[in-house]
Amino acid sequence: MVWRSLKRAARRRRERAGMLERAYRSVFLCPDGEIVLADLAAECGIYQAPPVNLEPRAGGYLDGRKALYARILSMIRIPPEEHAALQEAARLEMLPEFETDEEY
Fold it and tell me: Which residues touch 44 (CB under 8 Å, ≥6 apart)?
């Protein structure tokens, strides 16, 4: 199998930029993609302050995780009201789970 690459798919830089943005949007702006974005936001702590006693190495690692998530957000360009909804979904992902016998 040959993995697709942007440089193989598009010759001009402008064409590649549009193609890349469309690819990100098709992956993340769908029901499954929204779930993944909320999980990634919760996992990388993008909407949380870092712990006060964070060591420099751990801080760098955390910054890297947040930067990658910020890259995804910059590529999909969602409006502020959708970003607020994503923030809320990420917050819900961080809440402790309560076991129930009911199906949702």
Answer: 62, 65, 66, 68, 69
Spatial separation of the C-alpha atoms in residues 66 and 40, rounded to whole Å: 9
Give mean pLDDT, residues 39-53.
Answer: 88
Helix axes 13-28, 56-76, angle to 10 degrees: 100
Residue 99 has pLDDT above 70, yes or no: no
pLDDT at 102: 58
Q: Which two three-digit tokens encode residue 22?
A: 């469309």
Number of H helices, E strands in the chain: 5, 0
Tell me the whole-structure pTM to 2 decimals.
0.75
The pLDDT, as a whole number, for residue 101 is: 55
Cα atoms in the Cβ-side hemisphere of radius 13 Å centred on 2: 5
Which residue has 């190495």 as its token pair? 57
Q: Residue 14: how many CA atoms within 13 Å on its side-chain side?
A: 0
Distance, CA of 65 to CA of 46 (rounded, Å): 8
